[in-house]
Amino acid sequence: MTAVASRPVTTAEETTTRPPGSTWHTVTPLLVAVLAAGGAYAVHRLFVGTPLGQAIDTAALRGGDFHHPQVSEVLTRTLDATRLASLALVCVLAAAFGVIRRRLDLALASVFVVVAANLITQQLKANLDRPLLDDFPAPNSWPSGHATAAASVAFVLVLVFPRALRGMVGLVGAGYVAIVAVATVWAEWHRPSDVIAALLIVLACGALAVFGVRLRRTGPSRRIHLPNRLVIVALAAAGALATAAGVFGMASVALSERALPDLVSGRFAFLTGTAGIVAATAVTFIVWVRLTAAEPAPLQGGTK
Fold first, then answer.
1. Which SMART domains does this entry report, sorted A to Z (predicted)?
2. Among residues 43, 122, 126, 144, which is most buried (max CB within 10 A)?
3. Cα separations in angstroms, 43 against 59, 61, 115, 156
4. Taking CA 155 as the corner, what is the angle to CA 152 and CA 160, rounded to the nearest 5 degrees?
């Protein structure tokens, strides 16, 4: 008699085994967190720990002392809207939205991003010293609390929205964060390096939160929807232009500070700092949208 081969039995352990490549997808946020934290440290060493870096940073701060009625109104209203109570309300609503979507992991990750980023920022600002290496004595303002608050709120909104909408929410959030960041320099509350470091700190905390979410959800990364890809392309184009302008402007300001006094105006220095802020905002939101829009598929029987 011919024996009929029996069908292999698939165990529960085998069905939940991570597919090839999913391990790298899971640990990628950790690498992003390390790079972002290292970037914040490098910003501090360059723009707070060196005389030339302080001179460039301060020139951008002092160059914002000009007024245009329409621009001033937009910046003032944006700063007024960035208050602790309103930001806390947005964060609570974002966490509640995550619970409503039956994504408790996203709700907890949102709370972690906001609390960790703002706590780290306030601790650094309170405990770091600013050596007097230029002719503008001022207390330490590194990193920016306003930029941290605005970026953390924008990050959690991206995180809790459905995956297909995260790119568009990120684009709006990037615009809001950039305006807040520029406004703090314009108001002479912060130097450009303060807000750039704040963005990197929020990105590091956000990446750690995504790592926690990916530990819970098995599977490889999913394809990024076309609208999200278009947003990433738009942010990349804006970031590339701003980076080019920022590098050229910083070199010009450095030359003016060290070799050719009055080569550039204070307004030019401020616009250079603005370009650096826009570039940093674009890069951080590109990474954030990429991390959140490519989350793994849910476990069988789980929620989307």
1. acidPPc (SM00014)
2. 144
3. 16, 16, 22, 24
4. 125
For the entire predicted model, the pTM comes to 0.86
Instruction: Give the number of other Cβ atoms within 10 Å of residue 149's Cβ.
Output: 26
8-state DSSP, 117? H
Contacts of 44 (CB under 8 A, 6+ apart): 128, 142, 193, 197
Return all residues near 241 (Cβ < 8 A) that are at least 6 apart. Answer: none
End-to-end Cα distance, the chain: 50
Count the helices and strands in the chain (H runs, E runs): 11, 0
DSSP 175-214: HHHHHHHHHHHHTTS--HHHHHHHHHHHHHHHHHHHHHHH
Cα torsion 46, 238, 188, 36 to 10°: value is: -40
* Upper half-sphere CA count for residue 11 (Cβ side, 13 Å): 3
* Residue 84, CB-side half-sphere exposure with 13 Å CA sphere: 3
